[in-house]
């Protein structure tokens, strides 16, 4: 990759300035336009350099992201199982309307997302505000609260959760101290999803860090001004902190909703890959996996993937639309 | 520190004596410590359960085992078709490949986006940002078909090659943000001194990017080590199982028999993440705070 160095040492030799990209053949201009040529050759050298720096990403974008996206869209109109496929038009999409398990999966995913995300963000915001007071030992608390969100996605934690909420698990052992006989939470259709929601809330650490960073950005003078005007603690929170934090709240909300629609591992492990009991933890992603990689009905699974993408896109768009009414970006004038 | 209002009841602060403030602060810490305890108690419980005799795990919510059963670790280590180091090794191979891939390919793309002018830069940048949000579920099936046709299913390639091609666009974004913060004069000085684009990238930008590279390496480690979905799909061969897959196998095969050993191996699986958490917390917190992704 020394082409550029060569080109810099001898700037007139423009063709050597092209790094090994796809067939670098620039037409050499006439000698009478030497000055402009140099300017143009620098620009074209920069372009070739950019292309070579971007080439791994571009190849990945085409071969691993955009190509498969197009293929996935096509597959969703076929009856495809490895090595064999047949165009069936909109049949996969029509089938969705007569698939009660899919309807259930949408419901389970929606309940999970719309219960766990607000709870998680509320916990994150509360702790961020408490920790932002600059108490001694703040770094220590921050670490403890942050740790679960690093570990939360792992299989080991899902295994732990399954036992903590098992018939004889930690939760029931603690309840027994108070004389309460607990259920087998993960194996009960009414409660299994609840344990997953608690697991999601447990990982509030990363939005908390984002809130903390946002709180740091609020200028102290606003609080001082509010204080002089006689605002109490509560009023300062409602009239200063909250409005100035709304962009961060919005950001976390968008991000967490997108993430939680895609949750997979915890539900898979806690239900032994079956989405049970009684499909009560059957997320859309689990159903997609079941259809695509267990039944090998990849056409239908692709259609489900596009349904998932559409749902996420719709809720993200709604989020942005509604943000006009509550997100405060300050006065930029 | 800045005095930030909280919903905590402390209305008449001005009239408080230092003594009541001290008591209040003490109570405040007490509540925080209690909350922190609730948060990490399940982890401590699992750690202690991994050292407890079997009949004690589901009988006593306390943390101190009546006898220390180190044998749980030995049992768990050898409970599966391969000794556990085999799964750790497999995970490490994938992790190492992923880290290398992300560091090289994402930093290259980031340098181009942050410093070079080229046609369609704005559009490509927007596409790059869009791919961060793209659910893996939308592309996983055609990817599987592609890698299956290449004969790569049941190899590590489907897990490493995408990283070599910078598909973790999040890290490109992280590094673009970082590089934009570096003074442009450095590039100009390097160019006057005879550095080409590659020279500037390698000798000027990369050394200054160390914090961003460290964040990338740590996050890649944690995500890849924790990753379950793609490993579940691409690795079915018993010889290629990774730590998460081995744990799942362990859980499904033992049913409800040897919990101590299962917990022991879960602790082993969490160990490296915990280590990186302790060592690299600074980078993790900065990475989250500047880009907002966990």
UniProtKB/TrEMBL annotation, chain A:
Keywords: Cell membrane, Membrane, Transmembrane, Transmembrane helix, Transport. CDD domains: TM_PBP2. Belongs to the binding-protein-dependent transport system permease family. Coiled coil: none annotated. InterPro entries: ABC_transporter_permease, MetI-like, MetI-like_sf. This is Sugar ABC transporter permease. The chain crosses the membrane at residues 48-75, 110-131, 143-161, 191-215, 236-258, 298-321. It is found in: Cell membrane. Residues 14-27 have a biased composition (Low complexity). One of its GO terms (biological process) is transmembrane transport. Gene3D superfamilies: MetI-like (1.10.3720.10). It is a multi-pass membrane protein. Residues 106-319 form the ABC transmembrane type-1 domain. Residues 1-41 are annotated as: Disordered. One of its GO terms (cellular component) is plasma membrane. It holds the Pfam family BPD_transp_1. It comes from Glycomyces luteolus.
TrEMBL record, chain B:
InterPro entries: MetI-like (IPR000515), MetI-like_sf (IPR035906). It is found in: Cell membrane. GO terms for biological process: transmembrane transport. The chain crosses the membrane at residues 26-47, 87-113, 125-147, 159-179, 200-225, 259-279. The keyword Signal does not apply. It is a multi-pass membrane protein. Keywords: Cell membrane, Membrane, Transmembrane, Transmembrane helix, Transport. Residues 88-280 form the ABC transmembrane type-1 domain. Its main location: membrane. GO terms for cellular component: plasma membrane. Pfam families: BPD_transp_1. Belongs to the binding-protein-dependent transport system permease family. This is Carbohydrate ABC transporter permease. It comes from Glycomyces luteolus.
């Amino acid at each position: 990759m020394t082409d550029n160095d060569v080109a810099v040492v001898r700037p007139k030799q423009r063709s050597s300035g092209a790094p090994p990209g796809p067939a670098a053949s620039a037409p050499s201009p006439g000698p009478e336009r030497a000055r402009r040529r140099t300017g143009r050759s620098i620009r074209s050298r920069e372009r070739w350099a950019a292309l070579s720096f971007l080439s791994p990403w571009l190849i990945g974008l085409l071969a691993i992201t955009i190509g498969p996206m197009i293929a996935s869209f096509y597959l969703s109109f076929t009856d495809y199982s490895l090595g064999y496929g047949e165009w069936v038009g909109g049949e996969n999409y029509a089938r969705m309307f007569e698939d009660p398990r899919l309807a259930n999966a949408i419901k389970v995913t929606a309940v999970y997302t719309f219960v766990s995300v607000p709870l998680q963000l509320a916990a994150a915001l509360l702790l961020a505000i408490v920790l932002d007071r600059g108490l001694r030992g703040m770094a220590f608390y921050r670490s403890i609260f942050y740790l679960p969100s690093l570990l939360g996605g792992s299989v080991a934690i899902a295994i732990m959760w399954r036992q903590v909420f098992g018939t004889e698990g930690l939760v029931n052992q603690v309840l027994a101290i108070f004389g309460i006989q607990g259920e087998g939470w993960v194996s009960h259709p009414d409660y299994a999803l609840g344990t997953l929601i608690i697991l999601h809330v447990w990982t509030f650490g990363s939005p908390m860090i984002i809130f903390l960073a946002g709180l740091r950005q609020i200028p102290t003078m606003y609080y001082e001004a509010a204080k002089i005007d006689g605002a109490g603690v509560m009023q300062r929170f409602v009239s200063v902190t909250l409005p100035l934090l709304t962009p961060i709240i919005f950001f976390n909300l968008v991000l967490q909703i997108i993430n939680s629609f895609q949750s997979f591992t915890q539900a898979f492990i806690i239900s032994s890959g079956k989405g049970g009991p009684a499909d009560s933890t059957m997320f859309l992603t689990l159903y997609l996996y079941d259809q695509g990689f267990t039944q090998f009905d990849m056409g239908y699974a692709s259609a489900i993937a596009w349904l998932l993408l559409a749902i996420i896109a719709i809720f993200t768009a709604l989020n942005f639309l509604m943000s006009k009414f509550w997100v405060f970006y300050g006065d930029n004038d | 520190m800045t005095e930030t209002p909280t919903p905590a009841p402390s209305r008449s602060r001005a009239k408080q004596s230092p003594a009541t403030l001290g008591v209040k602060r003490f109570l405040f810490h007490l509540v925080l410590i209690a909350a922190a305890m609730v948060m990490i108690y399940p982890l401590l419980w699992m750690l202690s359960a991994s050292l407890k005799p079997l009949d004690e795990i589901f009988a006593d919510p306390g943390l101190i085992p009546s006898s220390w059963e180190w044998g749980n670790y030995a049992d768990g280590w050898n409970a599966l078709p391969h000794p556990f180091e085999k799964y750790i090794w497999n995970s490490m191979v994938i992790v190492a490949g992923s880290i290398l891939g992300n560091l090289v390919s994402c930093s290259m793309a980031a340098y181009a986006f942050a410093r070079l002018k080229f046609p369609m830069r704005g559009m490509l940048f927007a596409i790059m940002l869009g791919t961060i949000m793209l659910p893996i579920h939308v592309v996983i099936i055609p990817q599987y078909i592609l890698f299956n046709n290449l004969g790569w299913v049941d190899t590590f390639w489907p897990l490493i090659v995408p990283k070599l091609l910078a598909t973790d666009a999040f890290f490109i974004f992280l590094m673009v943000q970082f590089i934009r913060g570096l003074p442009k004069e450095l590039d100009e000085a390097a160019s006057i001194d005879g550095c080409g684009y590659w020279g500037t990238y390698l000798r000027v930008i990369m050394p200054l990017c160390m914090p961003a590279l460290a964040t990338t390496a740590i996050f890649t480690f944690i995500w890849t080590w924790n990753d379950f979905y793609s490993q579940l799909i691409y690795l079915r061969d018993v010889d290629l199982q990774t730590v998460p897959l081995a744990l799942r196998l362990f859980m499904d095969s033992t049913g409800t028999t040897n919990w101590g050993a299962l917990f022991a191996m879960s602790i082993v699986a969490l160990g490296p993440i915990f280590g990186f958490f302790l060592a690299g917390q600074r980078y993790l917190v900065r990475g989250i705070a500047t880009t907002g992704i966990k």
